Request: fold
Amino acid sequence: MSEESDLEKTEAASPQRLEKAREAGDVPRSREMATCSMLLAAGCGVWFCADHALVQMRAMLAATLAFEREQAFDINLLVSRNAGLIVDLLLTFVPLAALLIIVALASPLIIGGWIFSTKAFVPDFNRLNPASGLLKMVSSHALVELGKALAKTLLVGALAWMTVSGKIEAMLALTVAPLDSAIGSLGHMLFSSFLSIVAGLVVIAFIDAPYQMWQHANKLMMTRQDLRQEARESDGNPEIKAKIRQQQRAMAQRRMMSAVPTADVVITNPTHYAVALKYADGKMGAPVVVAKGADEVAVKIRELAAANGVPLLEAPPLARALYTHTELVTEIPEKLYTAVAEVLAYVFQLKSHASKGGARPKPPGELDVPPELDPLNPASQTAAGEGAA
Reply:
């Protein structure tokens, strides 16, 4: 049962899946909403521009019926005159065309939004497959589209019949009315009839838009297995990530080990910890930890230091404090300045002894390491407990 539920599409589409669908041009669209918006814009545009357009068209019609004698015998003058009239006619309908263009560009914002996908231009030869075409003809989507078409036809037809049948007597009366008033009345009746019919399309559009959004969301639903696979792809395979972290640690350790021969001294615990310090007078504000490690890593640090002539100093409290409270390639804590200064003084004495000879310097005695910095000191454990509390 668990495996079957994992293969059922019960989960909503993830943001990654929605983004991939959008990149492929797959977004919810309502053709009914776009058609309704364009028809309403066209009707309103004609209503507001009708008076001006009629005046302009009447003037142009009059201009076409009257022309000068020279234009009748000169084809160039006639062409120039007609071209001017055509331009005037086009300019008359520029506001209406601009309104329709704006609505056509803005209608996708109602549902789905603007999108430009180059993947939509890639040829899909599966669409030429007759078998898949026949399956689409009998699919649930095709049945829904057929139902919408029938409902739209019945609704618009019923509205058109009720609108026109109620105005038959008024239209017959226009045959005996004066021309100017008849034209105005006819325009008003046509516009009101148009709005009545488009009102049916508005109802269909407001039903179709939520349906298209639901259908799109339902089409992109995922199984639990899909979600797990997507999580693995986005977050990475845990085994691969573990190997990458292991390689990163190995690379960091190799870089750290390569810095051991450049250290001035290695302070040991003597076996559990090893910390390599470097100090360049005038270039560093304080000594810097260039390598540190515990157990096996500490052994390798000591071996590298001995092989490259780096002095080793056994100072357990200082080694533990440096290992615990200092990160790689960072300066030591200020509280350890005094203890480390004694160690460096001893190291410089060793270098002087190696070059000039004389009595071998003695290692420093008990170093001044603050108790709260030594992890094995009871004072450090007490301070840690108070901080946690």
Summary: The chain has a mean pLDDT of 78. The beta strands are 265-268, 273-278, 288-294, 312-314. Residues 179-219 form the longest helix (41 residues). Residues 356 and 377 are 40 Å apart (CA to CA).
